[in-house]
């Protein structure tokens, strides 16, 4: 979870993620983790800037050969 997604917007100061959306996200992640565990896998969940968290996970794991990601599409003004 990137803390920057929970700050106010630049233009109007409204939260990017309100309490209802946050609850939905947390419940969805919890459900995904439980589903993966039933299939013999797991889900790593971290809080922080992705550029820091991913680097730390790669260092911790030590044998990473590839990293895939997607970038959020931002609206052009």
From TrEMBL:
<dbReference type="GO" id="GO:0071949">
    <property type="term" value="F:FAD binding"/>
</dbReference>
<protein>
    <submittedName>
        <fullName>CRYD protein</fullName>
    </submittedName>
</protein>
<feature type="domain" description="Photolyase/cryptochrome alpha/beta">
    <location>
        <begin position="1"/>
        <end position="77"/>
    </location>
</feature>
<dbReference type="GO" id="GO:0003904">
    <property type="term" value="F:deoxyribodipyrimidine photo-lyase activity"/>
</dbReference>
<dbReference type="InterPro" id="IPR002081">
    <property type="entry name" value="Cryptochrome/DNA_photolyase_1"/>
</dbReference>
<dbReference type="InterPro" id="IPR006050">
    <property type="entry name" value="DNA_photolyase_N"/>
</dbReference>
<dbReference type="Pfam" id="PF00875">
    <property type="entry name" value="DNA_photolyase"/>
</dbReference>
<keyword id="KW-0157">Chromophore</keyword>
<dbReference type="GO" id="GO:0000719">
    <property type="term" value="P:photoreactive repair"/>
</dbReference>
<dbReference type="InterPro" id="IPR014729">
    <property type="entry name" value="Rossmann-like_a/b/a_fold"/>
</dbReference>
<dbReference type="InterPro" id="IPR036155">
    <property type="entry name" value="Crypto/Photolyase_N_sf"/>
</dbReference>
<dbReference type="GO" id="GO:0003684">
    <property type="term" value="F:damaged DNA binding"/>
</dbReference>
